[in-house]
Design brief:
With 131 residues, the chain is of the alpha+beta class. It has 2 helices and 8 strands, in the order E-E-H-E-E-E-E-H-E-E. Strands 1-7-2-6-3-8 form a 6-stranded mixed beta sheet, with helices on one face. A two-stranded antiparallel ribbon has the order 4-5. The radius of gyration is 20 Å and the shape is extended.
């Protein structure tokens, strides 16, 4: 998740302040109707699923690329259509996801994202305890 851990062997003093309310850093920047989302945020998958459910196009880049002056890693979601810009901006802010809008889809190899079908089988008599 991109978190650096540091071992601390002894007590220390820190100048801290309480945070009031939730911190939201998600945003939608740029112009255009193609949206680029890094897959590093869990909520990126929520945005992609909402766009797909609304009839939009969802693909993922299979290689790194550069667009709008930024570098994007393989796995970046490329979204088009489905949701109005305002709805996508609200989802980005609420999910703390940075979304970049561009005028045209980047020229990069992609793979279509299809809806997953997941099943859970529970037999009448379990072979082991659940949980």
């Amino acid at each position: 998740m991109g978190v650096e851990a540091v071992a601390v062997a002894s007590p220390f003093q820190a100048d801290l302040a309480a945070v009031e309310g939730a911190i939201r850093e998600g945003s939608l920047a740029g112009t255009g109707d193609v949206f680029l989302i890094s897959p590093t945020a869990n909520a990126a998958f929520l945005l992609a699923n909402r766009v797909r459910a609304a009839g939009g196009s969802v693909v993922r880049a299979t290689e790194a690329f550069r667009a709008a002056g930024q570098d994007f890693a393989p796995g970046t979601f490329i979204l088009k259509g489905g949701l109005e810009r305002q709805a996508l901006e609200t989802l980005a802010r609420d999910g703390n996801v940075s979304v970049t809008a561009v005028a045209e889809a980047p020229v990069v190899k992609t793979r279509d994202v299809v809806a997953s079908r997941i099943g859970l089988y529970k037999p009448w008599v379990a072979s082991m305890d659940e949980g």
